[in-house]
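Open question from group meeting: does this chain pack into something compact, or does most of it stay loose? Before anyone orders reagents, we agreed to write out a predicted structure and look at it together. Recording both the input and the output here so the notebook holds the full record.
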Amino acid sequence: MEFIKIIFHKLIFKVLLFSFIFCQDFIPVTNSTLNYNQIFFKWPQINNTDYYKLFISEVDTSYLSDINSIIVSDLAWDNQYSWEVCGYNNSDYLIDCYDSLNFSINSLPENYPNSVNILNADQSQYFSGINLIDYESLNFSVALDINGIPVWFADKSNFNNSIWATQFLSNGNIIGFGSNSKGYEFDINSMITFETSSNYDLHHQFHKTNNNTYFLIDAEIQFHPCPYECPDELPNIIPWQGDRFIELDSNGNLLWEWNSFDYFSLNEYNPMWVDSYVNQWNFGGAPEFDWTHSNSVFFDENNNIVYISARNLSRITAIDYNTKDIIWNLGDSNFMDSIYFNNDFGFSHQHSAQITNQGNLLFFDNGRDNEPELSRCVEIDFFDNIQGPEIVWEYVLPDSMLTLSRGECDRLSNGNTLITAGRTGNIIELNDDDEIVWHLSVKSNNSPISIFRSDRVPNLYPNIFSFTINNLFGSYHEGYHISHDDDEINFNLYNQGWSDQTFVYQTLDIEGNILNSSQVDISAYNNEIINLSNFNSLIGNYNLKIFPLNNSNNYQIITFDNQFMLGDTNDDEEVNIQDVIVLINLVLNDEHYIDSGDLNSDGGINISDIINLIIIIIGF
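Structure tokens returned:
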């Protein structure tokens, strides 16, 4: 079998012709309107090009790229642009240009905060990247750079007018949830790719695992006796609000659940929230007793442990994923039937419990009702259960950042810690010496903007790629093909995203049936050279499809067509002396380039092509 079959029949010389049929040939799509100004530009390959220049209207400079794509980060909001790409060789000779295309960038939301200030920014110690932030009190989400400049915002109109983005995925999508009790996965254009069922009363967290599953917290109402602190005028049986912790597969099917009513005793409650229930009842409402008020769920995939944070019990619980048994409860022993540790570490109404890469427990302690009330980040080492847990790091926030709800502590990969101070509108980054190296303050009309969580990522693009075919000639508009003396397709596949990716490349017949499928792992910002050969020569047409394994919607397709005849300059489906005459006239009159006349694949029409064509015809 040969990938390319050279046929000498009636002096016809065939090679494979192929055209790019991308999911999107040019990105950004022409006439599109974007909610971001950090933009990935991509275009089809221009043959014989060594580098490209990207020209953007209203921008004084051009952008250079060695491959057929680039990220541009300095465009303005509320503006319209046109862009054009040209290819050049190493002698700076212009090969070809594509037609100009248009796009526009939206204006920022009308209620965008009027005070976004950077109070401290140490460029040398700031962990490079942008900050994914939910403006909870404004019901939309943004991404800000080190200077507090927005580079993206979510279109909340796609999410029933509220979306709190909390997690940037390696597949290029974003995870968030809204006030309508739904969780979403969506792309940077705010197009929803997954949505939870309305059967769940989702609150506080929606999270995607590396196993392509989703965890959420679902409010659960059951009727149980009113605690003994309840006055006589209250009903004996009242609604208790607990929580179910749910895992869904990629189709929304239930995989796993854990119900607080099944594993926590009804004797374990905080009397303060009984008082709150009584006050709401006396005020004339019909409340639920807010028993657990859980606010985070974290799945440790390495150890199959689920960690939950039950705020109103001031408790963090570790759960065996397989058996669903409680491994331990950590927190206020006044609200526990069984005490697991001698030290409860004094935290109160905590948020965002998670496990670091070192295996330590890291969470935000709000400090509510403590004396004094102080908010802090706490990191606890359990020493593989060889000894009791100990605090190995903590950072107490200043009084100005005390937040009695919300909050998160994230350990960045360089060892810095990103702290979201909840309702104060502050986010700070600490280095190893607990020095503030970056400080963001967000207010609107002098009121702090409440923030659930934040996430630091390098840019908006963890999962972008492009490729260039090394033995290519032809053009985008007239069709591409490879050299007649090659028996394989040789191409460079570039992973331009910040996440390591597994790419799938498949060959399909014209009906879309998969003939062959292979995978290649490419680390972030790297590339691999791939050769395709040994295909069935009896199959006339192929599709080559390339996509990242974690996002099959982000694909590119090339169609291979064997109807191209090298040397058939007059398109009569034969190669003969008449084609030589056409080729001679093209050379003498310096007329336009045609693919079928470039027999030596040098990107031009010249005497060498005439000689090669004559050799083919006479049979040498």
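Observations to bring back to the group:
Helices lie at 260-263, 271-282, 577-588, 607-618.
The CA atoms of residues 296 and 352 lie 5 Å apart.
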